[in-house]
Amino acid sequence: METLEDRVLADPSAFRIMTGDRPTGPLHLGHYFGTLANRVRLQDAGVELFVLIADYQVLTDRDVADHLGEHVENLVADHLAAGVDPSRATIYRHSAVPALNQLMLPFLSLVSVAELQRNPTVKEEIAASGRATVSGLMFTYPVHQAADILFCKANLVPVGRDQLPHQEIARLVARRFNERYGPLFPVPDALLSSAPLLLGTDGRKMSKSRGNAIALSGTPDETARLIRRAVTDSDRHIAYDPDGRPEVSNLVLLAALCQGRDPHEVAAEIGDGGSAALKRVVTESVNEFLRPIRARRAELIDDRAHLRRVLEEGNARANAIADETLDEVRAAMGAL
Ligand code: TRP
């Protein structure tokens, strides 16, 4: 059967990809193998790419967006270092594109409160935030995310599984708008990454706030230290068995992804070497893999003016498109 992936590769110019991240810290290997590598691969296959730095979304679970400017520039650097090409891709931020944000208002009229309240990702974020009160933004940011996607009429959104409920809301908004006011938006498809889920060095979800994440921007020494402290088990025989031995298998997977090889093969090679040998292989593989990305990133970080220029150009292009879409939306709704 022909998959969405096949259709994209057969006719890349028929697709526009849009995706993004919250600027809350540096990107790590979980981001890289989960989505960043996929963005670069699709860009290189000829699909048009929009990358959003979702700065307003930072305020869903905190009151203040700390070090925002720094995080935004670092995100631009991470993307360029990983291979996103600013002469083909558009990198921009929420707060610099007023017409995108204005789309949220008509879009809010298309969804019910019940639909927003049942979003499982939002429920998990509320539980994880540990806060006594829940802001209106927490419930409505998936509608804002629909505006992120629909303003540029993207039809393909590469995301992780946790984003699927938001993707459903974007599809709902597109369909309801088209039914009510006439056809304007493509109904965007989610594209799930085929890479297996990479966990942090403690076997839990990789996240910089847990101190278990290997940052693209980290030094080889920091990387070695994190891996030295990684959780393993006492069985000296190294095997790839994600269900039975999740921590060891996750380290094997990390080395395998960095080497571009099959994890079973990597495990067999280490054999009875125990965790010490495993950790040596993982550290070398990760540092070797990241070496060129880190070298490019270090150059980029030294040229802040260039990073700012890339973002200004992306913002300008996003604004032109957003203004046009907002005009079309207002015309379709009777010049509201
Ligand atoms: N919610 C996404 C995250 O937390 C970031 C994001 C914002 C996004 N707008 C988007 C992702 C639009 C895809 C499409 O990672």
Description:
This protein starts with a helix and ends with a helix. It has helices at residues 4-10, 29-44, 68-82, 98-102, 104-108, 113-117, 120-129, 136-150, 164-181, 220-228, 246-259, 263-270, 274-301, 304-332, and strands at 16-21, 48-53, 90-93, 156-159, 189-192. The model has no long low-confidence stretch (mean pLDDT 94). It has 2 domains: 4-195 and 304-332, Rossmann fold (3-Layer(aba) Sandwich), CATH 3.40.50; 220-300, Tyrosyl-Transfer RNA Synthetase (Orthogonal Bundle). Helix 11 packs across helix 12. The strands form 2 sheets. It has a 3-stranded parallel beta sheet with strand order 1-2-3. Strands 4-5 form a two-stranded parallel ribbon. It is mainly alpha-helical. Tryptophan (TRP) binds at residues 18-22, 52, 54, 57, 145, 148-149, 157, 159, 163.
Secondary structure layout plus pairing:
Layout: H1 4-10, E1 16-21, H2 29-44, E2 48-53, H3 68-82, E3 90-93, H4 98-102, H5 104-108, H6 113-117, H7 120-129, H8 136-150, E4 156-159, H9 164-181, E5 189-192, H10 220-228, H11 246-259, H12 263-270, H13 274-301, H14 304-332
Parallel strand pairs: 1-2, 2-3, 4-5
Helix pairs in contact: 3-13, 8-9, 10-13, 11-12, 11-13
The chain binds tryptophan (TRP).
